[in-house]
Amino acid sequence: MNRDEFNSFCQSLPQTTHVVQWGNSDVWKVAGKLFALCGWADDEPAFTFKVTPLAFEILPDLDGVRPAPYLASRGMKWVQHYKSPGLSDTELRNHITYSYEMIVAALTKKKRAELGL
């Protein structure tokens, strides 16, 4: 997945917003809450997303996937696909979708209703 494909995919999820921050990173949010971002690692796009505790234990064992810099060091369960082989495009899209769904599920019922989620 390249950066344009990442942005297009994140944009396709309902009620998402995009900002560029943190050194030219594409940051994707739902209801103001971060669910995915794309920056750079050694001239390759690096995709960062929230995962379940189990996925946080398993995914960093894959070559090209690591606990997300900054976020994981603060106890958050986020990982980063930062080089090949890492995750396939399909797996990456699935994990970004799961990240989005975890953030939506953590919103209040009122906020989800306001957003039509």
How are the SSEs placed, and which strands pair?
Blueprint: H1 3-12, E1 16-21, E2 25-30, E3 33-41, E4 44-50, H2 53-58, E5 65-67, E6 78-81, H3 89-106, H4 109-115
Antiparallel strand pairs: 1-2, 2-3, 3-4, 4-6, 5-6
Name some characteristics of this structure.
4 helices; six-stranded antiparallel β-sheet; 117 residues; single chain; alpha+beta
What does this structure look like?
Helix content is 35%, strand content 30%. It is α+β, with helices and mostly antiparallel strands and 117 residues long. It has one domain (3-112): Aspartate Aminotransferase, domain 1 (Alpha-Beta Complex). The protein has a six-stranded antiparallel beta sheet with strand order 1-2-3-4-6-5. The two termini are 27 Å apart. 27% of the residues are buried.
| CATH class descriptor name | Alpha Beta
Helix tally equals 4
Q: In percent, how much strand structure appears in the residues?
A: 25-35%
Helix content: 25-40%
- CATH architectural grouping: Alpha-Beta Complex
Please outline the major beta sheet: 6 strands, antiparallel
Do you know the CATH topology? Aspartate Aminotransferase, domain 1
Number of strands: 6
Question: Looking across the biggest beta sheet, what order are the strands in?
Answer: 1-2-3-4-6-5
Give the overall shape: globular
- What is the oligomer described by this structure? single chain
